Amino acid sequence: MPFDLILRGGRVVDPSQKLDAVTDVAFAGGKVAAVGSGLKADPGTEVRDVSRYIVTPGLIDLHTHVYWGGTSLGIDAEEFCRLSGVTTAVDTGSAGPGNFAGFRKHVIEPSQVRILAYLHVSHAGIFGFSHRIMVGESEELRLMNPIEAAKVADANRDLIVGIKVRVGLHSSGTSGAVPLDIALEVANEVGMPLMAHIDHPPPSYEEVLARLRPGDVLTHAFRPFPNTPATAQGTVKKAVLDARERGVLFDIGHGKGSFAFKTARAMLANGFYPDTISSDIHQLCIDGPAFDQVTTMSKFLCMGMELSDVIAASTVNAAMALRRHELGSLKPGCVGDATLVTVKQGQFDYEDVVGEHLIGDRKIVSEGVVIGGRWWHPN
């Protein structure tokens, strides 16, 4: 099959193949066709000189809110992804079983960017969060809809990758872990992983972790006090280490209130890296402090993570969490998505959710994306 597109001469960083080399990447029929030096172009092949850029598998943002127009939190996926280098946006619970059909028809299906979703166990998802109104959907147990959630998840397995629930004082009030137990019942019924949001207690970080199964995701994993994974002495809590040992995954989910430099420094100092880095982008944090996926990745780069580890946490690790192994890799036969970035040198001001600033010396900048083997929205 002739190549549709060749990215020529970029620094290809693909942790799924332990690859970091200057080489070419070719695409055909919507998939990665070949990786190697001097790939031959056919008469109809588009060839792009990307020698100034780093080429990675298409970035996956494991925690977004992109039900634009359907919820007050939703942002426009295509605009966000073009600017942030994201080729797969995973919506985490914006929609529940009562409104997923609208999310699918009006947002996901028309989108040029791939959108996957965790389905909220609450009937209408996250419906009551804006600058003026903040109502925790999990606080009202009458909204928990496990029977319909299982039906909708089963009927939409092409797009739904798991079940979402939000617990904590701001999202479940005094209901504690009850919504989590209901969501786990749904996840077990449909054989899908669960993503759990956590904010202020109740429940405690430990109570949530104790319930999670191998392959389940705890998002907002590096959140500030209270409900932080680190002790006052700067060590990692035993419950956190035990959960990782049994296969629970730890996702960043930066957002408006869920990421602190103090927590991250403690965790990284102990060698406890996040499994996945995600932005939790929505209307309340897109203008700061999260901004986008590459800014969130940049914070970890500036805190000492190696570039390859940062990229892995936004590509192959996220694909594994989604159980979509055709994503997050530039192996031939995988989905033909790629992200082009540069790492700028300078002085960059980063802020966490509690107002602490970090002056970093590097910034990851999106320079363009390939989606489905085609150059998409070139800068």
From TrEMBL:
<protein>
    <submittedName>
        <fullName>Dihydroorotase</fullName>
    </submittedName>
</protein>
<feature type="binding site">
    <location>
        <position position="65"/>
    </location>
    <ligand>
        <name>Zn(2+) 1</name>
    </ligand>
</feature>
<dbReference type="GO" id="GO:0046872">
    <property type="term" value="F:metal ion binding"/>
</dbReference>
<feature type="binding site">
    <location>
        <position position="197"/>
    </location>
    <ligand>
        <name>Zn(2+) 2</name>
    </ligand>
</feature>
<feature type="domain" description="Amidohydrolase-related">
    <location>
        <begin position="54"/>
        <end position="210"/>
    </location>
</feature>
<feature type="site" description="Transition state stabilizer">
    <location>
        <position position="166"/>
    </location>
</feature>
<feature type="binding site" description="via carbamate group">
    <location>
        <position position="164"/>
    </location>
    <ligand>
        <name>Zn(2+) 1</name>
    </ligand>
</feature>
<feature type="modified residue" description="N6-carboxylysine">
    <location>
        <position position="164"/>
    </location>
</feature>
<dbReference type="InterPro" id="IPR006680">
    <property type="entry name" value="Amidohydro-rel"/>
</dbReference>
<keyword id="KW-0862">Zinc</keyword>
<dbReference type="InterPro" id="IPR011059">
    <property type="entry name" value="Metal-dep_hydrolase_composite"/>
</dbReference>
<dbReference type="Pfam" id="PF01979">
    <property type="entry name" value="Amidohydro_1"/>
</dbReference>
<dbReference type="InterPro" id="IPR020043">
    <property type="entry name" value="Deacetylase_Atu3266-like"/>
</dbReference>
<feature type="binding site">
    <location>
        <position position="280"/>
    </location>
    <ligand>
        <name>Zn(2+) 1</name>
    </ligand>
</feature>
<dbReference type="GO" id="GO:0019213">
    <property type="term" value="F:deacetylase activity"/>
</dbReference>
<dbReference type="GO" id="GO:0016810">
    <property type="term" value="F:hydrolase activity, acting on carbon-nitrogen (but not peptide) bonds"/>
</dbReference>
<feature type="domain" description="Amidohydrolase-related">
    <location>
        <begin position="263"/>
        <end position="343"/>
    </location>
</feature>
<feature type="binding site" description="via carbamate group">
    <location>
        <position position="164"/>
    </location>
    <ligand>
        <name>Zn(2+) 2</name>
    </ligand>
</feature>
<feature type="binding site">
    <location>
        <position position="63"/>
    </location>
    <ligand>
        <name>Zn(2+) 1</name>
    </ligand>
</feature>
<dbReference type="InterPro" id="IPR032466">
    <property type="entry name" value="Metal_Hydrolase"/>
</dbReference>
<keyword id="KW-0479">Metal-binding</keyword>
<feature type="binding site">
    <location>
        <position position="220"/>
    </location>
    <ligand>
        <name>Zn(2+) 2</name>
    </ligand>
</feature>
